[in-house]
Structures are given as structure tokens and as C-alpha cells.
Amino acid sequence: MSFEAKRCGVQFSPPSIVLIYQHKETKHMRKRIIPVRNFSKYSDYSMAAESLKNHPRHRDYLEGVSQSQLEKLHIILRDHMQGFSLEHSLASFRLDPDEDLNQLDDDKLARKKGQMDELFEKNRKHKDDPDFVYDLEMDFTKTTQERCSWDEESDDGF
Amino acid sequence: MAGDAGSIPELDQKKYDSDEQVKIICLGDSAVGKSKLMERFLMDEYRPQQLSTYALTLYKHTAAVGNKTVAIDFWDTAGQERFQSMHPSYYHKAHACIMVFDVQRKITYKNLANWYKELREYRPEIPCCVVANKIDADLKVTQRSFNFGKKQGIPFYFVSAADGTNVVKMFREMITRAVDYKQNPSDFMDEVLQELENFDLEKKEEDSEADEVGLKAEGPESE
Known about the structure:
- The structure holds 2 protein chains of 2 kinds.
- Chain A has one domain.
- Helices cover about 30% and strands about 15% of the residues of chain A.
- Chain A has helices at about 45-55, 65-80, 85-95, 105-125; strands at about 5-10, 15-25, 30-35, 145.
- In chain A, strand 2 and strand 3 (about 30-35) form a beta hairpin.
- Chain B has helices at about 35-40, 90, 105-110, 110-120, 145-150, 165-185, 190-200, 210-220; strands at about 20-25, 50, 55-65, 70-75, 95-100, 130-135, 145, 155-160.
- Chain B is globular.
- In chain B, about 40% of the residues are buried.
- By secondary structure, chain B is of the alpha/beta class.
- The interface of A and B includes residues 101 and 121 of A.
- Chain A: This is Centrosomal protein of 19 kDa.
- Chain A: Belongs to the CEP19 family.
């Protein structure tokens, strides 16, 4: 991979994905504007994101951008097409640790999962990383353990 | 009645009676990382089989346990957890259960009690564990003790599907426990079901001696 994705975003008109990346050899920072074609307010954001990620002209640049991040950008574009504000889209991604995600429909859950995936991708160890260990073990039993506040107020088997 | 529970037309759950076939189920709230854990454990082997009509995903895996090869089916929910309850066929003939929560969301930990209660209604004795996922988000959580596992007398694992911490260890231990359980089933329902099945097929008299099978398994070779 000779490009390193640094940041990405959207442009509403014409609908496009904007990618800031660095050329690994020359170290030059570049901006790439990828027009999003055949995408309407009725389109499937997950399929659109997948086909963009596999697009022969763009896939090398998008290698470091996760599927869920591309989905998120498509959701923002689609929300805009449906007349929702950017603030509305961003609020729908926000995670509330006390919210019961079991109650959400597919679309709302996908927004939250997309948000969670950002941290996952950031901390993710890939198979080809030099320090990758398949069977990574860590013993936490010896660390001094304080009682977890989540176990308090127990009335339901805790 | 319990026999009906296994009726998913595409899936013949009878195969789980054979010695080499093991069924391990995953339980837990939406977005705790159940599929991500499967993906991390199976790596290149990761080929989910979607049964969307049943909101169910299956993953197949083979492992060597002791001196034999076993085929494991991991059952994962595909949104079925939204109904706060799983279809009885999900629990039917399961040999072990992996319960997952997200260390960043208290509600997913609190809901373990509901999942565990439902599990034990169907499978009172199968091996089970509690998995605290996403410790990469904040390693400090590993200094806290989460008492749910201890209270129920089941093992507890701190894991991260992202960086891989303890994922493989947890799955391997659960596979071993599932196979052990299969060789020495202690669930009353298992025995009842087996009796019923034997009743149907009068010919298979050898199989009805569940105790004997259990003893044999402890011998040096179980070919």
C-alpha cells in the first residue's frame, strides 16, 4: 500500500467522498475527491460503501478506510438528500453508554456500530502487522482488583 | 414438546448427537462484539453462513481435542437479541455457551442476568463463561472485578476482539469444555431426550447406556 489515508469527509454538492492521504514514498499530502454516483436518498448505504471500497480506481487509496467509516459517510450524504441536517446525522452517531441498543432498528443500530468501529479499527491488530500474535494471552488475575460499581445495587442475581 | 424446538428446516440438529459434532452458542446484547470475536478467532477460516429468516449466523470450525477431530458449529445471533429472548431452537442441543458484554456499557453487563436466566431454563448444566469484551478501549477495567461470573460459578475472561487479547484462549477452553460435557452430559433434559429417541428406535440398545459411554470416554483410548 503506497497511500496512507489521513482523514476523510464528505462534500454535498456534487455528492462526493473527500480523502486526505499521504503518498508513502514522497511524503506528499494530497486530496482526492471521489464523486459518489448513482446514489439517491433511497439507496443502500452499505452496498454503496462496499462497491466504493472495491472500486478499481479508488480501492488503493481507500485501503486504510474501513467499510463502516465509508458507510457512515454515505449515511451523511443520504441524510442530506432526505433533507436532514449535518447536526442530525452526527447526533445519530453519538454513543450514549446508557442507551439500550437492543431497542434500535437496523438503520439506527448501524449508525452506532459505525461509531464503535472507529475505535475498533484504531486498536485493531492485523494479521500482517509485524507484532501480530494469534494466540495473545494476558493474565489479569494478579492485578489488584477493586470491586466494580456495576455490581452494586444488586437485586437481579448480581 | 422439546422435540419441536429443534425444527429449523435447513438445519438438522440431530447431527449434534454424534460424537464429533459440537454446538456452541453466543449470547449477549446488540453490538457487544459477538461477531467480531468469532472473526478474530477464526481469521481466514471466517465464513459466516447467514440464515436471515431465523436471524441467525453459523460459523463452522474444526479442532483437534485430545486425539480426535471435532466439528464445531458456533451459533451467533443476527439481531435476534433485539427480542430480548432467543427462539428455543437456539438453545436446543447446545453443548456450551459464551456470554458477552461490552465493558464500556453497563447495561450490557446488567442484561447478562436475563440471558443467563433464559439459558438455564433450556440448558441447566452446559458449560458457560462470561466474556468482558473491548478492554482495549480502556485497560483500567481489568483492575476491576466483575462478580457475575464468580457468583454463578462460571469462568470470566477479559478479552479484546480488536487486539486479540485472550480471544483464542477463551475459545479453545470453551471448545474443550463443550467436548467434555458432551462425553459426560449431566443435563436431565439430555437424558430425557435421549430416552425418547431410544424409545423410537428400539434397535439402538447400546446407546441407551449413557453411564457406560461416560466411563468409556475416560479410558486411555476412545476410538
